[in-house]
Amino acid sequence: MRTTTVGDVTVLLPDLDPEDLDQVTDLPDDDLRHGLVEGVSWRGQQIADLSIRGCRITGADLGEITWEGGGFYGCEIVRADLSGAALTGVSIERCSVTGSRFTGTRLIDVRLKDVLFGNCRFDYATLSRVSAAGSVAFTDCTLVHGTWSSCRLSGVALRSCDLSNLELDSCRLDGADLRGSRLHAFAAPLDNLQGVALTEDQLPDLTRMAVNALSIDVRADAARGHDR
């Protein structure tokens, strides 16, 4: 059993042996199990209720796919391109996703459990009603200019990520570990962030958020009169 620990979050990872996997090039009509998927292009495909289990997917072009239902279980996904994809009602469980691109991707009603995202790009991505049903960690990921709404991501780890200009609306990120992450122009209601873990050098960004949330009027000191 493989695990990795990010902050206080321990993620259960897939344990695949490439010698046990069969080479796959075509998108199957039925569930895909124990496949080695390398360098394929399924760009723009429409996929429904397809489950991929125990597979290693490397260098795949999955950009602009429309995927509804099904999901990934016990998979390793490396350097895949899902830019512009739309995933709805998909489950991602016990998966490692590294070096992959989710630029402009829409994740809707997606369920995450024991998932590690490492060095991935989620710039301009939209997450709606995404939920963490178990351990979830993002490390060294870029999530700039994204929009997250109605997500349930309590206790996730977002370590050493770039969260600049990321906007949260009605999300539960309470107890999340944000240490080492860049929070420039990060926007979220304060009650979405209850109990998050930060480092001392991140406090100015939190102060800025509080000032904006409370519409505090910060003014220069009034000039003092001089005695004659």
Automatic annotation (TrEMBL):
Coiled-coil annotated spans: none
Pfam families documented for this protein: Pentapeptide
InterPro entries listed in its UniProt record: 5peptide_repeat (IPR001646), Pentapeptide-BTB/POZ_domain (IPR051082)
Domain of life: Bacteria
Alphabetical list of PANTHER family matching this protein: BTB_POZ DOMAIN-CONTAINING PROTEIN KCTD9
Protein name according to UniProt: Pentapeptide repeat-containing protein
Organism of origin: Micromonospora coerulea
Higher taxonomy: Bacteria, Bacillati, Actinomycetota, Actinomycetes, Micromonosporales
